[in-house]
Amino acid sequence: MKKLNILLLSALAFGTLKTLAQNPQWQKVTLPTYADMASHLKSFPVAYSQTLTWGQTGPISRESIIKDLDDMKSRGIRCVTIEAGYKMNDPYLSDGWFKTVQTIVEELKKRDMRLWIIDEGKYPSGFAGGKFSQEKPELRMQGLVVAKRISLKQDETANQTLDPSIVSAVAVNNETKSNEMIDVSNHQLNWTAKQGDWQIMLVQHRFKTSVTRAANNPTGGKDTVNSLCDYLNPAATRQFLEFTHVQYKKYIGNEFGKTVLGFRGDEPEYNFTPWTPGLDDIFRNKKGYDIKPYIGTFFTQNATREQKLAKADFWDVWSDLYRDNFFKIQADWCAQNGLEYMVHIDHEDMLMDLARTEGDFFKDMRYVQIPGVDAIWHQIWYDNVADFPKLASSAAHLYGHPRALSESFAAYTPKPTVDDARWVVNEQLVRGINLFEFMFWSSSAGGRGGASGYMAETGFPALEEYSNRASYLLSNGIPAAQVGLYCPTESMWLGNKDANTSLLAISKQLLEHQIDFDYVDNQSLESVFKAGKGTFTNLSGQTYKVIIVPTISILTAPALARLKAFAQSGGKVIYTGKVPFIVTDKTYRDAKVQDNINWAVNSELTDDIIKKQIPADVTLDKAAPAVKYLHRKWKDAEMYFFFNEGDQSQSLKAAVAGTGKTELWDAGTGTVSAITGTVAKNGQTTLPLELGAHQTKFIIVHASK
């Protein structure tokens, strides 16, 4: 395995940053040399720059485009993300709209600027400006709903012929809340109430959409007039691409992979239980049983253990379809056209809701080139330090992608100053985000355009330069975290809130002890990671030596087997929850009890466990919970990024992995200075680490001459 890792890292290094200034190197995981990185520190490729949401509101013209772009460039902005807006001369997805985008690309190219395109006229992604409702209604989104409720008392009978769209029926005792599944496979309801008062729920599949906000909607509001497409149907996703991406290619395809970097998706989600034609047959082929009798119980409050497990099977199947038939098809199209697909979904900061509405975050991001999150409202602030940005960066690391996105500052409260914005940026940079889409710049054609808020402050160009260079530094090299923290999505499908609480607590605890980690998921444990002697290696070439499992209800048998083999070959598995839990193989419904994991460390995550069981590449001489860091490996150097999140200065000594010359790289100016007072011993360098309130530092330890 050691030989394999050397070959992998050598392959990553070959031909990487020596041609960094030419695309598509920024789209790849790299293993650069110190000299490569240093030579581009002052002037790095534009594609590494942050982007800015530019709303196309009002009567857009070449003159308004020129005015806005010149204003943006004067403020250090090098990339923009366009979003169709209201009151445009030409409706979204009309010939006039595409000609406007063509003009934007022409003017960006003149200024050596770059473009991202939001793939929808507002949000969420997938309604193609209303074209599915208007032109392809058969491909609209579908869902499961309670179509009818029938009240019965003891010995009363419900007897009726059902519409073929009724897929399931369940009777619920109004007093005990117990339920009884009713067989309606022959489209006949014939059920007599037992003792007590009962209510029968008939569950139907029908066209149903999450609400949309459309640029072509004259009300400007959120409603269901413009239906989303059926995310689980590959034909619907291909039609979405035909309505959108394929049309863009006709007008600006010659700049794909050059001026045009890619498409950005926005908040696709299900706020109800999904359905797609043939889902019951797909389920039966995957799981080996009929899900329809169980579907009615999804809408009850007191499901049995078997019913909850069947629901997890259903979530497992539809999240596979969501991954393969929506996200992967778009990512593949972008890759075939020299573009990147970046997307954030919804509820990344609320994991129980994320599991309910998105299925499985890591399945969703499996093939996405730039996984993302959304920092909106007050999700990240001085009084709300949050670790959810690590979802996006972890997905990028797991699946071999160099960038992770945060759409930041939409509807923020309180409105940030440029210093506040810098803190929010750093809070996410240190958790692995390395591409920001700053919100929001409205077109001057709408009458209220131009820089506003923190973007209008004199300090914004400096923030832009700092964050651009920081992203360049943090997008190159191999992520170096050695700890994987299992994200128990499957347990959340079962409604286990303790799994969520445990995960968040461990995340906080690790970071406050300067233990960096990635969230890891079930599909990575089962099939993505390459197993070595006491190691798991992800698709970025990053190696994990410790896997921590928080409180869980359930784990798949293949994942459990790989964890056991990992531990028996020298890796560390730390399980912080209680035994027994249940283990599933092909189906969750038929899960078995697991009451013996003597090959793992079964303990709460105490300070002693952290010190003795978890390898550290950064050690501070005293406790400093506010100090966070990232570590990335170059071919002949180690790069460390430190951030003091707190409002108190920190005077520390830090022991970091690696020996050689030690330098401070200033991300604001691109200058380099030597660090003195260092001591090298046993493969580590101990150095002075002085961090003012909210200060960051990039420290490079290198062996080059």
What does this structure look like?
It comes from Mucilaginibacter mali. Residues 1-21 form the signal peptide. Keywords: Signal. This is Beta-galactosidase. The chain has an eight-stranded parallel β-barrel with strand order 1-2-3-13-15-16-17-18, surrounded by four helices. A six-stranded antiparallel beta sheet has the order 19-32-33-39-35-36, with no helix packed on it. Strands 8-7-10-5-14 form a five-stranded antiparallel beta sheet. The model is unreliable at 1-23 (pLDDT under 50). Helix 8 (279-287) packs across helix 10, helix 14 (418-429) runs parallel beside helix 15 (460-475) and helix 18 (522-528) packs across helix 19 (557-568). 30% of the residues lie in helices and 27% in strands. The protein folds into four domains: 2-39, no CATH class; 48-136 and 218-272 and 308-476, Glycosidases (TIM Barrel); 483-613; 618-702, Immunoglobulin-like, CATH 2.60.40. It is α/β, with parallel strands linked by helices.
Give a nutshell description of this structure.
The chain is an alpha/beta fold and 705 residues long. The chain is built from 20 helices and 39 strands.
